[in-house]
Amino acid sequence: MTEVHKILVLPGDGIGPEVVAVAQTVMVAAAARFGVALAIDSALVGGCAIDATGQALPAATLAKAKAARAVLLGAVGGPRWDDLPTLERPERGLLGLRSELELFANLRPALLFEPLAHASSLKAELVAGLDILIVRELTGGIYFGEPRGIEVVNNERRGFNTYVYSEHEIERIARVAFELARKRGGRLCSVDKANVLEVTQLWREVVTAVAPDYPEVALSHMYVDNAGMQLVREPKQFDVIVTGNMFGDILSDVAAMLTGSLGMLPSASLAADGTGLFEPVHGSAPDITGQDKANPLATILSVAMLFRYSLAAPAAAVAIESAVNQALAEGLRTTDIEPVESAADIQRVGTRAMGARVLEIMEAQDA
Ligand code: NAD
Predict the structure, then answer these.
(1) Mean pLDDT, the chain, as a whole number?
(2) Is the domain covering 1-111+260-367 a CATH 3.90.1150.10 domain?
């Protein structure tokens, strides 16, 4: 009997519901075409959940998320909830999901679609064909280390955080990265600051100790300052990058900008058993909410990641990505990816029209 995969859809706030509605139609079509059986449910998270229940992550939503193989999320937050105390804000819904589902591996691809090569802040030839995957440890490191705080010492305030990783935390993220590198270009670069920080000396030792289990992957190491420089100097030298929480936070945003717009960037956060949360990198974009202006491609590409990483259906992922590429090649552009100079072959479209074209292209792939 075909396995039925439970998928939880969390549209969230702002443009979230608009981009998720479009991406969901693509998910349903791809599932049907590739014989993947889905049982799709939806729930509230973020500001809309606060309005309805008083909590950013209601117990009912968490229970559904825990039962699901994968969660597709739009975005949370907006000015309406900006005055709430930090612990009650919509973003707590997202942080709560990450920790409750133990999503320790954050995957951020920086993939440049050929038709958008000129939208990058780097020269087109430096980024044409760019395909990097940054694997960031998401639940440890300096963002969570204890002790932390601000205290008064000798009549002045002193702030402090703790950068800490245990061997098992390093080993499990290293294994995720090696596995991914094995299925991609076979190269893994581990980024640390082992010349200064003991915690990253341990990082380097543990990653190196895991390497013999993956003989087909070429492992290299790079200091984080150099990695930042190399990402803007010669980004195509990288295949998979693995690094800790803080370095990954910074480097994934640098890599993202190489590819142009926030509206194009998907992400995945995975647990040890392959369950995952898939979401666009962008936020709820209150400035364009409800205007059919949001680029749905980041969310559609998050659906491709969902098929690839949680449902082991890479063919469906490839079909979605190639349909996105074709829609761009045909000249379809939402406002965020419009070229600065007007070009005759560019067709300005809204959220729904972009989604409809991606769907049409996918259906035509069948023929
Ligand atoms: P944002 O990503 O929402 O928007 C930044 C700019 O990019 C805006 O001008 C917006 O119009 C544009 N933009 C974003 N996504 C787009 C898309 N798909 N298509 C076209 N243009 C797009 O970031 P912000 O303005 O700093 O934050 C707005 C709200 O979103 C805040 O409440 C913030 O806390 C929240 N936020 C949520 C997430 C999340 O849910 N993961 C991430 C970041 C920010």
Answers:
(1) 95
(2) no
